[in-house]
Design goal:
single chain; alpha/beta; Rossmann fold; 2 domains; nine-stranded mixed sheet; 7 helices; 31% helix; 21% strand; binds 2-acetamido-2-deoxy-beta-D-glucopyranose
């Protein structure tokens, strides 16, 4: 009897030891995750396409990993009157983590009404679903889109556009993640870009999709004579408040502003009116590209390692960050592993 008990005990000890060893291995994996602010494992290449979509010919700027594989698809919506190609650094950084990023050029126009822009962006998404595989095959048959994993990212007014897309689609096209980079919903409460997203009531905007909000403190500040580019009332803070969990909030504490998500070079001219850095924006686009890639890895990629790094090690980001906030947790039921090179 006692011999059996001993034996059984040592079997249990062995099992316990194996579980311990496995969990040590697992946490070793998580600890071994590299910084998302370094470039990802893929080199990337760019495609420039002009295509008829709905009633217009639209310029799509696409960045893909240079590798054989099936990759989740990210639609990127630019800010008000900004060129899609002005986000080269940010978008290339995201694509290097194994994502096909598609940035349509929206119609420039001064309209305060975003109704058309949202409709056009939804048309682009529908076009992507139906045609992107074929469009990419002209470049080579080995890069395939995984259309079961779609994510939306938008900057400034584009941030408002992607949340509106989520609201209007209401699950008719399944979206796995939505990210707003310094999203803006208009001028102030009551004077919102149509159709409004914000309700000014906590936990009321239910997208049933994991969301990330990245904000800048300088976005709500202004140079003399210019209004702020991301006014306090209708900026990232209110998006974070109104959205229903799971939602994460990263805020860039100082130095950088609303337009510092763009590249340096030509794009620098397009943002003199927004308060931001007077130096290079490289650190900001590396931060933004990194946190977006990390969140996408955690949501569509089933790999929380990079995002845990971003949350835990927020003091070692390339820009100074406030303590990240969150409501709820990311769901753990995503089932697709983004194939990373070294796995
Ligand atoms: C915005 O534009 C849409 C489409 O043209 C129109 O139906 C709507 O009435 C406009 N809204 C406002 C407040 O101007
Ligand atoms: C969204 O879809 C659900 C069913 O999936 C429906 O009950 C709800 O009314 C829809 N909401 C809107 C605003 O259309
Ligand atoms: C959000 O919407 C989903 C789907 O319609 C629903 O299941 C869920 O209960 C809603 N969440 C809240 C907090 O209202
Ligand atoms: C935080 O950074 C350190 C140093 O780079 C790293 O060893 C650690 O694993 C990181 N933490 C997380 C949760 O990734």
């Amino acid at each position: 009897m006692s011999a059996i008990f001993l034996r059984r005990n040592s079997v249990m000890n062995f099992v316990f030891f194996v579980i311990l060893a496995l969990s040590a291995l697992r946490s070793g994996d998580a600890d071994g995750c590299t910084s998302p602010y370094d470039n990802g494992p893929y080199t990337v290449e760019k495609l420039y396409l002009n295509l008829p979509i709905a009633q217009s010919v639209r310029f799509l700027w696409i960045v893909v990993p240079t590798a054989e594989g099936k990759f989740p698809v990210v639609q990127f919506q630019h800010g008000f009157q900004v060129r899609n190609t002005c986000y080269n650094q940010l978008i290339s950084h995201v694509a290097s983590y194994g994502f096909i990023v598609i940035a349509p050029q929206m119609d420039s126009g001064l309209s305060f009404n975003a109704t058309h822009e949202i409709r056009d962006a939804i048309d682009v998404l529908k076009w992507i679903q139906a045609n992107i595989e074929c469009a990419l095959s002209v470049r080579g048959p080995e890069i395939k889109p995984d259309l079961s994993k779609l994510a939306l990212v938008g900057h400034s007014r584009g941030g408002k556009v992607v949340f509106s897309m989520g609201i209007q689609l209401n699950g008719t096209i399944p979206i796995s993640a939505i990210i707003g980079l310094d999203p803006v919903d208009g001028d102030r409460q009551g004077i919102q870009t149509n159709p409004p997203v914000l309700t000014f009531k906590e936990n009321t905007v239910n997208l049933t999709v994991p969301t990330l909000i990245v904000g800048t403190r300088r976005g709500s500040k202004n140079w003399p004579l210019f209004p702020p580019c991301a006014p306090e009332d209708v900026n990232h803070n209110e998006f974070y408040k109104d959205l229903i969990e799971p939602v994460y909030h990263f805020v860039v504490g100082k130095e950088y502003g609303h337009m510092d998500f763009l590249d340096d070079a030509v794009c620098k001219l397009r943002s003199f009116e927004c308060m931001g850095t007077v130096g290079s924006r490289a650190r900001m686009s590396r931060f933004a590209g990194g946190v977006v890639a990390a969140f996408l890895q955690a949501t569509v990629g089933n790999n929380p390692c990079y995002f845990n790094y971003a949350l835990t090690n927020y003091t070692s980001a390339p820009v100074s960050l406030e303590v990240p906030e969150q409501k709820g947790e990311l769901p753990h039921n995503h089932n697709l592993q983004v194939p990373l090179k070294d796995e």
